[in-house]
Amino acid sequence: MxxxxxxxxxxxxxxxVRLSRNLAFSRFYEVYRIASGYxxxxxxxxxxxxxxxxxFPALHKHCLAILAAMITFSSTFxxxxxxxxxxxxxxxxxxxxxxxxxxxxxxxxxxxxxxxEKQNIDWKLKLPGGGASTxxxxxxxxxxTFAADxxxxxxxxxxxxxxxxxxVELGDDRGGKHRKGGGSNPSxxxxxxxxxxYFRSGDLACVDVKGNVQWQVNxxxxxxxxxxxxxxxxSPILTDDAVVVAVMQTGPSYLVAFNKVSGELLWKVDRIxxxxxxxxxxxxxxxxxxxxxxxAIAVFGADCLTLHxxxxxxxxxxxxxxxxxxxxxxxxxxxxTAKDHLIVCPYSRGERLTTVDMNHLADGKGDAAIVWKSxxxxxxVPTPALDQQRVYLVSDGKTSRGLxxxxxxQTGETIWQWQLPKSRHSFSSSPLVADNHLYVTSENGTTFxxxxxxxxxxxxxxxxxxxxxxxxxxxxxxxIDESLLLRSKTHLYRISE
Length: 497
Known about the structure:
The chain is built from six helices and 37 strands. By secondary structure, the chain is mainly beta. The two termini are about 30 Å apart.
C-alpha cells in the first residue's frame, strides 16, 4: 500500500520499476524519467528515488499528485504483497506490453503423455468451449473467453486449484470463419477491479471480478457490421479512464473509447486509409505509448501506423508506405511491440519488419522516422517479444517456419538465429521471454525453450509436449508466480517445477 506523511514523503514496499509496469503507474514513470533524465532501476531504493525527486521541486510535486491518484489502484492489485507481486499479467502482452516476464525462476521442462502421465503440471482444466484468447491475470485469478452453446463467455479460474469461479454469457457467438480461431479470439483485459471482454459479435462488456456484468454494448449495432474476412483478433486496451477498441476493416474503420465505469461513449474517431481490399483489415492490438510526455495510442494496420491522443483519440501523426506495391492481401495479424520511443511493426504476411521512432514521427519527419527496416525477416501471426534492446521473432511462413531470430532493436542487425524442428505445425502463439530463456509454443501445444539468452548462441534446451496436441493452440503462454499458464485448444494448464 502507498502511504504519504505530512512532509509529502512517500514509502512503498516494492520498487518504482515494479510500479511502473502496471498501466496506472506508467505515467508517473515516464514523467519522472523524461523530465529528470534519470532512469530508476530495481537496484535503486525508494529513498534514492525520492532524494532525486526532491532536486526537482515542480516534478516532485507533480509526481506526488500522480502517486496519490494511484493509491486505490495499488491496493486493488495488492502490489505490495510478496505473494502476489508477480501475479499481474493484466493484458495478453503483459504489463510492459512486450511479452517479457519479470522474476525467476520459471519452469523449463514439463510434459504429458497420452496415457496420462504428467511432469511438472499442477493442474489441467477442461474448457467448456473453444477460443484463442490468452488468459489475463490479476492476483490469484485468471480470466479468459470462449464460445459455448452458441454464446460468448467470459470466465474466472482460480489459479490455486484450476477450478471455475464463475462464467457469464455476453451475447451470441459469431465465430467460425477460420479453423484456427472463432468469435472469442480477442483477449480480455483487467484493471484488477473490472474485466473487459470483446467478441467478434461486436459485444464489448465490463464485468467485475466477482462475475457481475456492469455494462455491455455492441459496436456493430451502434456503428455498423464488421467486414473482416476472418474472425476478429483485435483485443481492447485501457487508458486512464477508458477501454479502447480499434476496428480496422474494409470500409469504415475507427477507434472508439468507452468509460470504464459507466460504459458511456467518450469518443470515436475515424481511421481511414487507402489500403486496398483485405489489406485494409487488421487483427492487431494497439499499444499504449508515451510521446512528448503525454499518453498516446499507437495503432498499426491497414498499411499504416497512426498515433492518437489517449484522451480524445485525435490522430496527430501517420506513417504510410508499408505496402508500396498495393498488394491486396497484406492484412495485418501480428501486433506491434515498442520500447520507449521505438515501435517495431511486422507486416507483409511475415516478410517485412520496420522499426519507427515515434518521437520523430510526431515531429513530422515522415519517412525519416524509420530507424531500420528488413525485407528478409518477419512474423505473420506471432507478435514479437522485446526485452531490453533485443527483439525476438518467430517466423511462420511456409519456408521460414520455426526460424527464431534475435535482432538488435536499434540497428535491426541479427544477433543470433535458431531453427526449431520442422513439422507440419506452424506457430500462432506469441513468444515469451522469461528467466533468460525464450519460450515458443507451436500450434500443437508443444513448447520449445531456447536459452540462455545471454549466451552468444543460445540453444534448444527443452521440448515440452502435452496430451492435448490437436491443432490449434493459438493463445500465448502466461507467466505467473514462478509458473506458467498454457491454454491449448481444449484445456488450460498450470505448469511449475
